[in-house]
Amino acid sequence: MPVLHYQGQTFRLISVFKASQEEEARALWRELTDNRGKACVLLEEPDRFTVWGKIRLEQLGSDTDEHSKTAIFVLGCILLLQAVHIDIEDFLGAKQASLFEKDIAEVLRQKQLPQASSLEAVKSLLKLDPLETASLPPWQENHIVIFLQELHKLGKTYFGNANFAHPVVDRLQDMPEAERSLFISWLIQSPMSKLWQ
């Protein structure tokens, strides 16, 4: 859960807008501050706008539970999938990228990963906006480990070596920094560290 400390107060990320959505970001911020009386911060970043709502620190502990951590790990997996797919398309061509979609869908079907075991499901994961976390598949940690193993195995088959997996941090640039750090530290401590570091 991304957190912002500003003027001695703690804020939690509520919403993220693309740079082109400045008006929508300001409208949400005004709605929350002026109409609902909430303490909010609107951050203007180079490539996006973010709206943050004030929280008490005791709320924070209950929010960053195992469920939200797992969602962050799932998000990391999806971003890695998208990065590998893009690399296959860029370096090996659209035909190979299409074959990769079928291959990963088949592997995930065999492994029975929830909401990822059909070609349509894989295609929707490849198009998923990383900031739209509501539509992430409901994976547990064992699903995440299986997914990362199979993605690495398939990537190695397509590229002929494991160089595509390094450095993993470059493939996670779309993740907010706090979430990216959490995912990387989990990855380093997991059985996946040898594959993805």
Produce a short descriptive summary.
The protein is of the alpha+beta class and 197 residues long. Helices cover 56% and strands 14% of the residues. It has 2 domains: 3-63; 66-196, no CATH class.
Shape: elongated
Question: What are the low-pLDDT stretches, counting only 5+ consecutive residues below 50?
Answer: none
Class inferred from helices and paired strands? alpha+beta
> What is the C-alpha radius of gyration, as a whole number of Å?
19 Å
Please report the total strand number as a whole number.
4
Distance between the termini: 23 Å
Strand order, main sheet: write it out: 1-2-4-3
Oligomeric state of this protein: single chain
N-to-C order of helices and strands: EEHEEHHHHHHH
Number of domains: 2
Biggest beta-sheet profile: 4 strands, antiparallel
How many helices? The count is: 8
Q: What is the mean pLDDT?
A: 84
Strand content: 5-15%
Helix content: 55-70%
List the helices and strands and how they pair.
Layout lengths: L2 E4 L2 E10 L3 H14 L4 E5 L3 E8 L1 H7 L2 H27 L1 H17 L8 H9 L13 H19 L17 H13 L3 H4 L1
Helix pairs in contact: 3-4, 3-6, 3-7, 4-5, 4-6
Structure notes:
The chain is α+β, with helices and mostly antiparallel strands. It folds into two domains: 3-63; 66-196, no CATH class. 56% of the residues lie in helices and 14% in strands. It has eight helices and four strands. It has a four-stranded antiparallel sheet. Strand 1 (3-6) and strand 2 (9-18) form a beta hairpin.
